């Protein structure tokens, strides 16, 4: 079903490409995959399922262990235009570090020799899905918060919002927005650059059991919303 939709989207994309020879498509409609072989698709008004293979992660615990191997669907926007991004993520989380959610990265910051990024979503830890946030300036800082809603169904709505030079990460539980993290370095610099915004899924741990070591983790995303200034 997903494949069929991707093919239809591809056909639409080709049609749109020919139709748009007179009108450049807006930068925000350009989406790319990293670490994933699938047709390009925009998550806006779409339901997307990423099948994350095992041995994938986004995690930098030391300078010598810099891992960005997870499937990532992203678009590039001007950093100064970023306002907020949110998504509802759902999966049958069951194995240590199974995870998925939002990622933003700052690939054009020349003054750093390392990539700065923030990931926020659900991560399976201590036998249950948790809300996990990792802020990575030089190295990764990880925090966990219990899911107060829907931990049985494994879905969560996560939001990253710009507040001055900070990025704030929230979980949306019904009508309530609960703070998970303040990242003070996010928008302190680089306002003439581009940043990447998107969704990811990762499966650091292989399934046990004969024949299951290459099982993938299916993570579904819906209601993706990216708010920009222009
Ligand atoms: C994508 O496909 C290419 C060519 O078949 C292959 O070399 C590469 O390993 C694949 N990448 C992933 C992430 O599966
Ligand atoms: C990334 O992390 C995963 C999970 O720990 C590991 O299996 C994989 O080998 C790592 N890949 C790289 C390139 O470091
Ligand atoms: C979470 O899952 C439950 C059960 O499938 C569903 O009723 C609820 O609408 C979901 N919440 C969101 C935000 O998708
Ligand atoms: C996600 O952000 C949009 C604004 O871009 C907002 O209208 C919407 O209410 C947000 N979703 C949730 C669940 O808060």
From TrEMBL:
Pfam families: DUF1349. This is Uncharacterized protein. Residues 1-27 form the signal peptide. Keywords: Signal. It comes from Penicillium argentinense. The keyword Signal applies. The lineage of its organism: Eukaryota, Fungi, Dikarya, Ascomycota, Pezizomycotina. InterPro entries: ConA-like_dom_sf, DUF1349.
């Amino acid at each position: 079903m997903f494949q069929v939709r991707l093919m239809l989207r591809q056909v639409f994309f080709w049609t749109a490409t020919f139709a748009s020879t007179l009108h450049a498509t807006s930068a925000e409609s350009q989406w790319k995959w990293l670490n994933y072989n699938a047709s390009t698709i925009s998550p806006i008004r779409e339901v997307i399922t990423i099948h994350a293979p095992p041995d994938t992660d986004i995690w930098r615990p030391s300078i010598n262990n810099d891992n960005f191997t997870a499937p990532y669907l992203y678009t590039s926007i001007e950093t100064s235009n970023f306002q907020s991004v949110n998504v509802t993520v759902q999966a049958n989380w069951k194995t240590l570090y199974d995870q998925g959610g939002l990622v933003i990265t700052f690939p054009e910051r020349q003054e750093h020799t390392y990539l700065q990024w923030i990931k926020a979503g659900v991560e399976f830890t201590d036998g249950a899905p948790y809300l996990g946030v990792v802020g990575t300036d030089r190295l990764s800082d990880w925090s966990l918060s219990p899911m107060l809603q829907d931990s049985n169904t494994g879905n969560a709505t996560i939001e990253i919002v710009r507040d001055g030079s900070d990025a704030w990460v929230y979980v949306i539980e019904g009508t309530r927005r609960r703070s998970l993290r303040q990242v003070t370095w996010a928008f302190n610099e680089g306002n003439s650059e581009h940043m990447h915004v998107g969704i990811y899924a990762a499966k650091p741990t292989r399934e046990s059991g004969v024949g299951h070591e290459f099982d993938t983790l299916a993570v579904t995303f819906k209601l993706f919303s990216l708010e920009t200034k222009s």
